[in-house]
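Model it.
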Amino acid sequence: MNVVRGSVVKALAGRDKGCYFVAVAADDRCVYIADGKSRKISAPKRKNVKHISPTDSRVDITGMTDKQLRRYLAAFLTRNPEADPDHD
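Modeled.
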């Protein structure tokens, strides 16, 4: 699975299962994800690529703040009714 920087992903496993994040960085086996609230851009969570599902959405995160990231993900959830609105 090829996840690129700025991709919106859904967590499939772990305590954050069902939540949406943005990929801050990626390598072969893991992706670093942030949502601006529980996981800041400056301290992203490392997640195995097997435990995420990428969406078709992508955002340019260059210079983005945590507040802007939270707003983007909130707007993403309202634009996509099939997305789970229970994201914290």
